[in-house]
């Protein structure tokens, strides 16, 4: 009888240890996937129809302070960004990137997470290939008739 009770206690202890290990692992993976922000930060994830957008600029700008104030950060390989240490104000947040149309501006305040999946304003759209600066210069140059300087 005593042996049976010890066996049950050991099994219960193993089950509790397994549950604690699984919940701690799940919690740490959720924290590393998300953005940790303070009360003076704005952060989130930028995605498009193709998935996370790496290397795009996220701009936070305000006119609520005595002078115009802006901070620009770049997203990491998973589309995450963090605009740190912002003065208390209301900000316009938008995304800009080479070959991308600027996203619509989204109102935000420090202490908020702004994700493109939950905020329609951060969706990205691409320009057609012919519309980058180099193509415009080539098109303009090709439309000027060649003349002899002599």
Characterize the structure shown.
The chain is an alpha+beta fold and 150 residues long. It folds into two domains: 1-33; 37-136, Sandwich (Immunoglobulin-like), CATH 2.60.40.1120. It is built from two helices and eleven strands. A hairpin with a 6-residue loop joins strand 4 (57-62) and strand 5 (69-74). The chain starts with a helix and ends in a 7-residue tail after the last helix. Residues 24-33, 117-123 and 132-150 have low confidence and may be disordered.
Write the layout of secondary structure elements.
Layout: H1 2-33, E1 42-45, E2 47-48, E3 51-52, E4 57-62, E5 69-74, E6 80-83, E7 91-96, E8 100-101, E9 106-108, E10 112-113, E11 125-126, H2 133-143
Task: Average the pLDDT over all residues and give the rounded result.
Answer: 74
Summed up, the domain count is: 2
Unreliable residue stretches: 24-33, 117-123, 132-150
CATH architecture of the largest domain: Sandwich
Structural class: alpha+beta
Topology-level CATH name of the largest domain? Immunoglobulin-like
- Strands across the major sheet, in which order? 5-4-7-9
The proportion of strand residues reads 25-35%
Beginning-to-end CA distance, first to last residue: 113 Å
C-alpha Rg (nearest Å): 26 Å
H/E topology pattern:
HEEEEEEEEEEEH
Name of the CATH homologous superfamily of the largest domain: Carboxypeptidase-like, regulatory domain
Number of strands: 11
Please give the CATH class of the largest domain.
Mainly Beta
Number of helices: 2
Helix content: 25-40%
Backbone shape: elongated
For the largest beta-sheet, the strand count, sense and barrel status come to: 4 strands, antiparallel
